[in-house]
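Question: Send over one sample?
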Amino acid sequence: MSTEMREFSSLSDFIKFVDGELAELRRSLGELLRVLEDVRAKAEQDKKLRELLSKLTGASGAQPSPPVVDLRGLKVAINPSAEVELGLLEQLVEALNTKITQLQAIRKEIEVLGGTDIEASVKAIIIDGVPRALIIKVS
């Protein structure tokens, strides 16, 4: 969990910060989605190959995936199958989408204040990349 306090000279500067964060998250999400599609295709190929081999050999074809170990909330997968890797990447995509949605909602609400001619400095309490509190001081 990352926690920080950032200071901005105005509400419009804070909105620019949020816009920058949104742009960066969207870029990261786009890159991640490309990786996810590659892993998804590999997982599908692995599955088809296992099914074909099981038909040819008469074996069940269900090879156990290497385990994913949970170390106090940290998932560790050593030499994971494509399916395991796909699941972990999908969790990351979901988390990024959630963060983007939260930032968009914050921006929409704060935009009203940023459009005023009130001169105010802003301190933002940011937890895990999402502003959780604003301290606005009128000059």
The first strand starts at residue 3 and ends at 8. The first helix runs from residue 11 to 57.
